[in-house]
Amino acid sequence: MGRPRQFDEEAVLGLAVERFWEHGYEATSIRDLAASMGLTTASLYNSFGDKRSLYRQSLNFYVEHSFADRVNRFEASLPPRDAVEAFFAEIVDRSLADPKRKGCMLVNSALELAPHDPEFQRMIAQVLVRVEAFFQRCVESGQTDGTISTAQPSADLARMLLAGLLGIRVLARVRPERELFEGIVRPLLAMLDPTIPPAKELLPS
Which residues, at least 6 apart from 38, have a Cβ–Cβ distance to it below 8 Å? Predict the structure, then answer.
């Protein structure tokens, strides 16, 4: 029988997330990770596998403790339009509160790994599909209860919100400015206004 682990696996995985998130995949070595996690390299390998495996687990941990947690909180407690507004408000605050300008680990991974790594490309794409699906659920519910415009299809509005989210999280790396972020969010939310007439009414007569 193997010896029980002498550490909190979730806590040390959180430390790996912080190291990868700040420095990226390529610039982080196993030695860096072991030091950050307070483990020997042997314990790291035994518990989490190689660097690639640890990164996969770290990215999953990040997604479930950031995006998934946020969606669960807002969908369970807020009307659909309010859930979208609260989602973006938290993203703006989170982006501004990070002195290291780490941005979003998922977006960082999309830029660093997805272009040349099919496994991570699929993994990241699946998460972005989940984000888009959250927005679409909110839009569809809001269109049903009259709080969100029906001028555009729910799928198009969801994709617009996804694009705005990704833009904010990229800009968080280089221009973490409240005025900039709120200038992105305001027109996004304005497009949800239920007083916007249907698309056919927007065409010139």
Answer: 7, 12, 15
In Å, how far are 21, 127, 173, 180 from 101, measured between CA atoms? Answer: 10, 22, 5, 15
Domain ranges of the chain: 78-194
DSSP E strands in the chain: the ranges are none
d(CA 160, CA 140): 14
- Between the CA of residue 128 and those of 1, 106, 120, 176, 201, what are the distances in Å? 41, 9, 12, 22, 32
Tell me the residue type at 103: G
| Cβ atoms 168, 181 nearer than 8 A | yes
Is the Cβ–Cβ distance between 106 and 127 less than 8 Å? yes
How many whole angstroms separate alpha carbon 169 and alpha carbon 111?
12
The structure tokens listed for 106 are 């998922």
Instruction: Give the CATH fold of the 78-194 domain.
Output: Tetracycline Repressor; domain 2 (1.10.357)
Measured in degrees and rounded to the nearest 5, phi and psi for residue 196 equal -65, 130
- The model's pTM is 0.90
pLDDT tens digit sequence for 107-133: 999 999 999 999 999 999 999 999 999
What lies within 8 Å, CB to CB, of 120 at 6+ separation is 56, 59, 109, 113, 114
